[in-house]
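Same chain as my last thread, 265 residues:
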Amino acid sequence: MKTETPNERRRFLLSIARGIGLSAMGALVWSAYVGEVKAAPLVLRPPGALDEAEFIKNCIKCGLCVEACPYDTLILARPGDNLPMGTPYFTPRSVPCYMCTDIPCVPVCPSGALNELSVTSYVKNKAVLDINKAHMGLAVVDENSCIATWGIQCDACYRACPLLGEAITIEHSKNDRTGKHAFLKPVVHPDQCTGCGLCEHACVTQIAAIHILPRALAMGKVGDHYIKGWDKEDEKRLEGASIEVTKTKISEKSALDSLNDEGGL
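reply #2:
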C-alpha cells in the first residue's frame, strides 16, 4: 500500500487551490460581462439592427460587419466599454455612419442580427438595399446649447444631413431681442431621420448640441390608452376595447356644473 509523501499532499492541495482560484476568476469575468450586457441603454447599432434585446440574442460577435465597414465607423465592444463585449456599435461624434448605398455591413451578417429586409425597398418588383430606411437612432437637439437657438447663425447640422431638407429642416422665427434678426432653428423629423450621426459629427459646439439617441429613448411611448380622436386610422385601435368608468365625487356633477362651481363663495 502506497502512502503519500508531504510533497505529494502539498502538490495536491495546491492544484485544488488553483482550480478554485480559476473558477472564481471565471465567475468574476462572467459577472462583469453580464453586468456590461445590462449596461447598454444608449448604444447605437449598425443599420438594420434588431431591437436591442433581440440583437443581443442573435449577434454571434463575429465582427464581419465591422470588417465590411469602409469608414471604420463600427467598433467591437471591448472589456471596459460598458457595452456587451464583442458586439458592434458606433459613436457618431467620433465617426458617424456615412450612409453607404450598398450598406456593406448588413448582407455579411450570418445570424440575422442585422435584418436585411428592414433596409430593403422594392423598385419595379426588384429588392434593393435602401439606407434611407435605416433606424439606427434619432437626432435630438439640445436647445440650451444649440447656438442657432441663441440667435447665432449656424446650419452645420442641416448642411451635414444626407437627407437635406428632409430629416432636418430650418425653422425661421423673429428675434424679438434685436427686432431685425431671425432665429434659424434646426427641427428634426423622426420619420425621415436615420440616426446616421453626421449632424452630431458636424456640430460646431465643444460638446455636440445635437445627439443621436436610440429611437426607443428619444421618442418615448404614450401607451395604448391614448387615442388620436381626430385620426380615423388611430381610432381603429378602439375596436373591441372595453370601457371602464371611474366614478369620483366630482363626477356626480356634469362637467359644466363642475366648472361653474364657485365652492360656496
